[in-house]
């Protein structure tokens, strides 16, 4: 049996490892000239680590360094808006790991035979019979996995009339700052803007900034330094510690609900199926869940029945996570002075269980 995997990011490579471990021949088609990840840090939450455990890759990632979940939300002045019991979260759900995205890609890539990797391959069309047409010719498989991101060629080929991704109104900058003392994972809310930071295993600091902006607008490090200059320490110091070329920016898109993730011999996973806002940090974790679930059910049940089982298992859960992620970030991006003032008064008075109910369903997955 052969699986053609379109896209060599985290979701695609996880699928390749999962199918390869089950004895399938795999072929991974990646548009970029090499298999790597640009960008910055990545938090692998307990559900993502459990998915990696099914491939024997959870412990190698944990060995690089553990991290804590977000302990709450702070105001830009430094005061706490919400608090979460970190020890209780880890006791109930397991460990968190923060790592550079490229390091996870390298770990996954090492689990795929080198001759199965096809960098520099631009897919042009996918057909329901398992045929993939690309710039280097044609590939055919018993299964095609569309793991090619929010602008998925696979999705557009099979579902040409499906709703297009929609811009959610904010853009995200990410960077890695040099090693410096910080107190752990933090996220801070202002009015229509957020700043988060967390340590990486090597002492560097992963930072992200999410700001209301028109689609396609661009800002540089100078703009960010000015925007966050009066926020609590160490935010200004983090921004002042990096060079001008350290920042990457991506607009945030969400994919409207699809009626199915499968058709013929085709399955979508990750952002190609359910692109979501970054508010819960679940994008990569949901792709990990998708990949190991798909390999398990298809290898166990066969392609037609396995794809039906995959869609039944994954579509309700991932679309729920998309919805919760959107809702969780809404109040952070209010710009009304009245609403933000009300938020800053009400949030500290809410019980921890209110935030817990929003987050817990993401962590509880098991295959």
Low-confidence stretches: none
Our estimate of the beta-strand percent is 15-25%
Instruction: Kindly report the CATH topology.
Output: FAD/NAD(P)-binding domain
Could you name the CATH class? Answer: Alpha Beta
Q: CATH superfamily name?
A: FAD/NAD(P)-binding domain
Please, how many domains?
A: 1
Q: Helix segment count?
A: 13
Mean pLDDT: 94
Shape: globular
- State the distance separating the first and last CA atoms: 23 Å
**How is the largest sheet built, in terms of strand order?**
5-4-13-14-15-12-16
Range of helix content: 25-40%
The CATH architecture name reads: 3-Layer(bba) Sandwich
Q: Please give the largest β-sheet.
A: 7 strands, mixed
Structural class, from helix and strand content? Answer: alpha/beta
Radius of gyration: 20 Å
Number of β-strand runs? 18
Pfam families: FAD_binding_3 (PF01494)
Organism: Nonomuraea diastatica
Keywords: Monooxygenase, Oxidoreductase
Protein name: FAD-binding protein
Structure, explained:
α1 (about 10-20) runs parallel beside α10 and α2 (about 45-55) crosses α3. The strands form four sheets. A seven-stranded mixed sheet has the order 5-4-13-14-15-12-16. Strands 7-2-1-11-18-17 form a six-stranded mixed sheet. It has about 375 residues and is an alpha/beta fold. It has a single domain, classed as FAD/NAD(P)-binding domain. The model has no long low-confidence stretch (mean pLDDT about 95). The chain is built from 13 helices and 18 strands. β8 and β9 form a beta hairpin. The protein is globular. It starts with a strand and ends with a helix.
């Amino acid at each position: 049996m052969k699986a053609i995997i379109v896209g060599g990011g985290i979701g695609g490579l996880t699928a390749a490892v999962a199918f390869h471990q089950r004895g399938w021949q795999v072929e991974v088609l990646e548009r970029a000239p090499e298999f790597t990840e640009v960008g910055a840090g990545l938090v692998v939450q307990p559900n993502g680590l459990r998915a990696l455990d099914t491939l024997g890759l959870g412990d190698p990632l944990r060995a690089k360094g553990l991290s804590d979940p977000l302990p709450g939300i702070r105001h830009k002045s430094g005061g706490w808006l919400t608090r979460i019991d970190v020890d209780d979260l880890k006791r109930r759900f397991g460990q968190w790991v923060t790592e550079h995205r490229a390091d996870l890609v390298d770990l996954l890539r090492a689990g795929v035979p080198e001759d199965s990797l096809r960098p520099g391959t631009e897919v042009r069309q996918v057909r329901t019979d398992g045929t993939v047409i690309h710039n280097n010719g044609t590939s055919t498989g018993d299964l095609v996995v569309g793991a090619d991101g929010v602008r998925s060629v696979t999705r557009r080929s099979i579902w040409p009339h499906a709703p297009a991704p929609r811009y959610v109104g904010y853009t995200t900058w990410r960077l890695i700052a040099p090693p410096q003392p910080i107190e752990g994972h933090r996220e801070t809310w202002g009015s229509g803007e957020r700043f988060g930071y967390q340590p990486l295993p090597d002492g560097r600091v992963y930072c992200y900034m999410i700001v209301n902006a028109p689609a396609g607008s661009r800002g540089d490090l100078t703009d960010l330094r000015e925007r966050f200059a009066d926020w609590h320490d160490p935010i200004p110091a983090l921004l002042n510690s990096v060079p001008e070329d350290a920042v990457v920016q991506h607009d945030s898109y969400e994919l409207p609900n699809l009626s199915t993730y499968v058709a013929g011999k085709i399955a979508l996973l990750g952002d190609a199926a359910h692109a979501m806002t970054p508010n819960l940090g679940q994008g990569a974790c949901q792709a990990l869940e998708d990949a190991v679930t798909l390999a398990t059910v298809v290898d166990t049940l066969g392609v037609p029945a396995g794809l039906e089982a995959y869609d039944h298992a994954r579509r309700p859960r991932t679309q729920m996570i998309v919805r919760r992620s959107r809702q969780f970030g809404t109040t952070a991006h209010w710009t009304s002075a009245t609403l933000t003032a009300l938020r800053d008064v009400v949030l500290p008075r809410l019980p921890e269980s209110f935030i817990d109910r929003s987050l817990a369903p993401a962590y509880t997955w098991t295959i």
